[in-house]
Design a protein that fits this description.
ABC transporter transmembrane region fold; Rossmann fold; 3 domains; six-stranded mixed sheet; four-stranded antiparallel sheet; 63% helix
């Protein structure tokens, strides 16, 4: 007896946990739906207009079978016309009455079609506007998330979320919310009219609704889980495509085509299996729903035919009821599909919200101070100081360890050291791509975290090792450093960076389009355009990360000549492995394993025979 009671209690606990889990899932789904719909609030007037057209369209749809019923009962049969219509058609011949009712069929169908078309147009318009807002919001947030987030994320997957997963919001609005409203309104109106016609048959039709709701609750959680898995698998496929195209030269030179194809085929197979599993559950769900509809329809037709035989229902009334039954199938079918639509769309919106819910790691402090737009001619700005700075991409694995040094405004220094010493990482702290875990970086005595991020970055010109160009013209690429710059200023910057020579040789000069990756330009030419940006920006701080590492001797000489002019009067930090790039710098900073091991003027460091700078110079002379 006690064993049975314990078993009943365990079973009760299982059911209680299952019910709680289902309730939590539904609450989370409703919260997700409400949040997604906020992107459409700006178009509430259009939504209201679409809703009004929807009500009129559904009302016109309910009127569709009535002209036919009147023709069967009163024109072909002996039943009198309803009083409100009979008084208006009194004295009209029967052929004319038939023509009028046939015209009413056309008018009702045309009116319902026009109303539905206008409703759908407004709905699509609002849906696309909401989709645009979602994409704009996602892109806005991606631009503000930290470098740490982007470097730890899969680029192809992020692109998939921003382009394809965002469609889920439009789907949720159009095919989710409004399909539910349309189906529910149609269902209520038709069941009301059907109840006026025949209560017994209406009860039989309504009996399908509880079974429909139960089926939706049973299958919805599983379909959502499968939908998330399928979206994730598709994102991995998109990521591999991006990686393969980006690494195409490496794949060719290593003859890895078959290996990469094999990897890709495995991911494609996983994505296919995930989608197949998702659609398998959807098909099973729809099969159950079809069974429910089939049982209800067969019962209604059998009972309705019996009532006509017994004289309880006219033939026209049965035709109206059967027509409503056919129309009833559509909203019921739409409601049954809502589970599939919401599950798949909810999976997409969840993946988008994962991006939007990622906290902004590097942001303005509440009391961040603005920097002045200009300085007096005698002001010296750009003094930098690192005070016991420690940082690691993973906090438990520091890259920089208790760095301390100062640079006066206008002073230049090279940062050298073996690979992996933390040189590039040091530079990335200046525009606050990252914030140190310990210590403080200051600009003119102010903690960088207390300066408005935009103002700080406007004061730092960053020339990267890998020259980056945006799709657009050469003038646009140089001008992006200072929006609003005149063409004369852009050309002066190009001249200062020794880029004007190759630009003038191009067919369209400054209006020449450069594609993604600037395939039309050499590495040296692209790097000189990067220097032109720095000249145009005219920032007090210049940061250069291996600007000549991939250049030939001629291009290096042109870039170094540009650098010599660019660093004048600017606080400059240059990361390099080339001794030739160190000419004219005030100081040398040597990093090793994240620590500052040498700091001084070049001629002073040469007195240390065992020092890194001395050894680097000696190796260069031998070469």
């Amino acid at each position: 007896m006690r064993t049975a009671q314990r078993g009943d209690k365990r079973q009760s606990d299982v059911w209680r946990l299952a019910a709680a889990a289902t309730s939590d899932t539904l609450r989370a789904g409703m919260k997700n739906l409400w949040r997604a719909l906020q992107f459409f609030r700006a178009d509430l007037p259009l939504v209201a207009a679409a809703t009004g057209l929807l009500v009129l369209s559904v009302g016109a749809g309910v009127l569709k079978p009535w002209p036919l019923a009147l023709i069967v009962d009163s024109i072909l049969g002996a039943k009198p016309l309803p009083n409100w219509l009979g008084a208006r058609l009194d004295g009209v011949s029967q052929p004319a009455q038939l023509a009028i009712l046939a015209g009413a069929v056309l008018a009702v169908h045309f009116g319902q079609g026009a109303l539905a078309a206008a409703h759908n147009y407004l709905l699509i318009r609002v849906g696309l506007r909401g989709l645009a807002r979602v994409r704009q919001t996602v892109f806005h947030w991606l631009l503000r998330l930290s470098m740490r987030y982007h470097q730890s994320s899969n680029l192809g997957d992020l692109m998939y979320r921003a382009t394809w997963d965002t469609y889920a919001f439009q789907t949720l609005f159009q095919q989710g919310l409004f399909t539910f409203i349309t189906a529910t309104l149609s269902l209520v109106l038709m069941l009301t009219v059907m109840a006026r016609l025949n209560v017994t048959l209406t009860y039989m039709a309504a009996a399908a609704l509880p079974l429909l709701v139960v089926s939706m609750r049973i299958f919805s959680a599983k379909m959502k889980t499968k939908g998330v898995e399928a979206h994730k698998a598709d994102g991995q496929v998109a990521s591999l495509i991006h990686e393969g195209i980006a690494a195409l030269p490496l794949i060719h030179t290593c003859a890895r085509e078959e290996t990469e194809e094999s990897r890709f085929n495995e991911r494609v197979e996983e994505a296919r299996a995930s989608r197949l599993s998702q659609h398998g559950w959807e098909i099973l769900y729809l099969a159950v729903i079809a069974l429910v509809f089939g049982v209800a329809a067969s019962g209604i037709i059998w009972l309705g035919a019996r009532q006509v035989q017994e004289g309880q229902l006219s033939v026209g009334g049965l035709l109206v009821f059967v027509a409503y039954l056919g129309q009833l199938h559509e909203p019921l079918s739409q409601l049954s599909h809502i589970g599939v639509i919401l599950s798949d769309a909810s999976a997409g919106t969840c993946r988008v919200f994962e991006v939007l819910d990622t906290p902004e790691e590097v942001k303005d402090a509440p009391d961040a101070r603005a920097l002045p737009d200009s300085h007096s001619p005698g002001d010296r700005v750009g003094a930098l100081s690192f005070e016991r700075v420690s940082f690691g991409y993973q906090p438990e694995q520091p890259i920089l360890r208790e760095l301390t040094f100062e640079l006066a405004a206008g002073e230049s220094a090279a940062v050298i050291g073996p690979s992996g010493a933390g040189k590039t990482t040091l530079l990335q702290l200046l525009p606050r791509f990252y914030d140190p875990q310990e210590g403080v970086v200051r600009l003119d005595g102010v903690d960088l975290r207390q300066i408005r991020l935009r103002d700080l970055r406007l004061r730092v010109a960053y020339v990267m090792q890998e020259p980056m160009l945006l799709p657009g013209t050469i003038a646009e690429n140089i001008g992006c450093a200072r929006p609003g710059a005149t063409m004369e200023e852009i050309m002066n910057a190009a001249t200062a960076s020794y880029a004007d020579g190759f630009i003038d040789a191009l067919p369209r000069r400054y209006e020449t389009m450069v594609g993604e990756g600037a395939a039309r330009l050499s590495v040296g030419e692209r790097q000189r355009l990067n220097l032109a940006r720095a000249f145009l920006k005219n920032a007090p701080i210049l940061v250069l990360d291996e600007p000549t590492s991939a250049l030939d001797a001629e291009s290096e000489a042109a870039v170094l000549a540009g650098l010599e002019k660019l660093k004048r009067g600017r606080t400059t930090l240059l990361v390099t492995h080339r001794v030739g790039s160190l000419h004219g710098l005030d100081r040398i900073l040597v990093l090793d394993k994240g620590r500052l091991v040498e700091d001084g003027r070049p001629q002073d460091l040469l007195t240390d025979a065992a020092g890194y700078y001395t050894r680097l110079t000696r190796v260069n002379r031998r070469a």
